[in-house]
Give the backbone structure.
Amino acid sequence: MDQLDSYKKSHYANVGKLLDFIEKHNIPRDAMILIQRVHDVYFEKYNWEPIKKEGFHFHNAKQHNEKVQFGVYMDREQYPNMTEEMRTQLISEEELDLTKDQYVVVFAPVKYPGDDNLYLDAHY
């Protein structure tokens, strides 16, 4: 969590600022929440580091590895469409890391005139 701690000391949004913004701008409870699209160039050229979390895809990949290790997929009646490679190949640690959900911190909420939705910018 060291990475998140450094963001807390800067000007990024936090829950308190977000709630204050929602109240100040009268954002309705049924408003849509939209996040700003972040281009890969920020990560590739400007060295942004996402916060990685072990989400749905990560846990499915780990479960796959466990089934391979315990021979679960060797039951050809239960898994008739699996190839031999699928039955025996483990997902590497490097590949597992790629399955983690990636997040970036929100820089600021945004309100557009005539639009009651909540927009969240990832950068200024």
